[in-house]
Prior knowledge:
By secondary structure, the protein is mainly α. The chain has a domain at about 45-140. Helices cover about 80% and strands about 0% of the residues. It contains five helices and no strands. Helix 3 (about 45-70) packs antiparallel against helix 4 (about 75-110). The longest helix has about 30 residues, at about 75-110. The N and C termini lie far apart (about 40 Å).
Amino acid sequence: MSDAAPSGDLPNPLWERRWLLAGQAVLILAALAVFVAVVAPTWHWRVFWLGVAIGVGAAALIGGIGHRATRGDGLSPERTLRLRRRLFVYATAWLLMGVLAGFGSSMANSAWPDFLFLAFLILTAALLAAVVVNVRRRRA
């Protein structure tokens, strides 16, 4: 008997571990909250919220590019569902990275970690957009 999954039911390890990833994110955020409570007098909220805003924008941008990539008639419904589930995990990870960049910026009282994260987002979005355009051209 084979352990391979049937072709219509592809394994999706990211989605299967979503609760583990969510639990880790909650633990990280709880640890950050405790740290902020301890060092509250030296905490710089403006640069923290800048990182969070970039993270929200990153999640929206990555989600939008991914949604655009999964539209169309070329994908089976199972594959589309699998890709959209992955997209949800990736967008949530980008949001968490924005919070972490804001945390680093606030600790250093410098917006440079936020700007570096923004540059990384721009490069990643450009690469993803190029891949989506290339895939669309191949389908046409």
